[in-house]
């Protein structure tokens, strides 16, 4: 059964999908105005004027190497507009806005301003992308060329340093030291400061002694001095050295 509506139907009643009643077994109407029944949708196919003869001939468009010049409109001269508006007697912002809408003053072109924009076309042989990485010098790696080059550089650097030292020696050869210069450079030895200790323990003597008497201590050091000559080590505490022929 079709949807029957009494009275005069407004356009909003027909074109508004929210006012449409749902029909049983039919989808909701979207109220779109569709063309007539014989209308064909899609893009029409243009007729091809070329044939097999044109397909067998390779034709390229000529390369355009000329520049396209695009004229740029000069900017407005607001200083001149404001000056002329004040001379006329306009003071408020609204009056200035109306004056600018009816009057137009452009800045004069100078030689330094670029009024022509040049658009350059890229050549057809232009290649884009990242350049290819150069090949690895395998011959230099197998022949230890980098090592030889590094050794040569180090040898040259050492020769340069030696030449500087020799030149410095020749410069300082005629300079001799006097007693005053030696005394000026001399630094008297200074005993290192003692370790920190609490004040209440500074006056208390040590309670542990390795030797019973001073005589035993002196004898032990003398024996160590005579025995260390045949032992190894910086202080003569090592094992005995074998006899040398």
UniProtKB/TrEMBL annotation:
Location of the region described as Disordered in the Swiss-Prot/TrEMBL record: 218-245
InterPro entries in the cross-refs: CFAP77
PANTHER family for the chain: CILIA- AND FLAGELLA-ASSOCIATED PROTEIN 77 (PTHR28617:SF1)
Name listed for the protein in its UniProt record: Cilia- and flagella-associated protein 77-like
Name of the gene: LOC116297738
